[in-house]
Amino acid sequence: MLTLLPLLAATLLGADTVLVSPAWLSAHLADPGVVVVHVDRNRTAYDAGHIEGSRFLPLSTIIVEKDGLPNELPPVATLDSVLESIGIGDDSRVIITGDPLAAARLFFTLDYLGHSYQAALLDGGTEMWAEGGWPVNTAVSPTRRASFTPAPQPELVPDGAWMMANLETPGVVMLDARPESDFVAGHIPGSRNIFWKQTLGGSPPTLRPRAELQAMFKQAGIRAGDRLVTYCRSGMQASYLYFVARYLGYETKMYDGSMAEWTRLPGASIELGMPK
User: Fold this and answer.
1) Percent helix / strand / coil, the chain, rounded to 5
2) pLDDT tens per residue across span 169-183
């Protein structure tokens, strides 16, 4: 039965299984197994008005400081317990809203745990939902604990040694998610740059059309079939670019340690300026 879950999730979530619209969610909100998660740094936006039945997840529960590095993945057992506590189980279809970076970080976390085929971001988040006329409320619904089975994919989270060994591997592209000014000031040698906010447009911000995103990636020097590794300062901005790359169908990893770790690695060099 477990092998059927990706197919079932794709059927439920639609063609773009990692992104759904507010209209789609409105039509499927009452479907069995749909779990809406509002993830953010604090409860302010959630308490002001959220999608009915959505569960609040503090960002702090899915990131930790490890060896002086911020925003690292907690142990699998910790993540398992956190997800189960808000009702995410093996058969849940998780629709993620909230702060864009926090939402993307949860998507990456579910991908790492082997469950991203059951997860999608809500395009435009709760703000677009409300603007479309769908109701928000302040009531907190009771949550029943679920049973979640992690299937960790450690290959999605390369370490510094892997990064150094693959700087010149053909077809592997390191993709920096920081603003251009940060990239120019110093980046991993050979990497390319797409500031994660450039992938969003409009108000409320929604993901740009697929053709625009593909053109953006092409302009950055990324070709069809390239394997991407996103990074930033400490793994948050990179989470959103990781999501976008996955949305576009690229085989993608994320260097969670990012520049915070790279600058500490013996023998690691820093490149300045824009690629030639």
Assistant:
1) 40, 20, 40
2) 999 999 999 999 999
- Pseudo-torsion of CA 42, 50, 71, 165, nearest 10°? -160
Q: What is the pTM of this model?
A: 0.93
Among 38, 53, 44, which Cα is nearest to 96's? 38
Superfamily of structural domain 157-262: Rhodanese-like domain (3.40.250.10)
Per DSSP, the three-state class of 66 is strand
Which DSSP state fits 140? P
List the chain domain ranges: 2-152, 157-262
CA torsion angle 235 239 240 244 (round to 10): 130
Please state which architecture CATH assigns to domain 2-152. 3-Layer(aba) Sandwich (3.40)
Q: Decide: 208 and 108 in contact? Cβ < 8 Å.
A: no
Using one digit for the tens of pLDDT, what is the confidence trace for 25-63? 999 999 999 999 999 999 999 999 999 999 999 999 999
User: For the residues 101-112, what does the mean pLDDT come to?
Assistant: 98
Q: Does 2-152 match 157-262 in CATH topology? A: yes
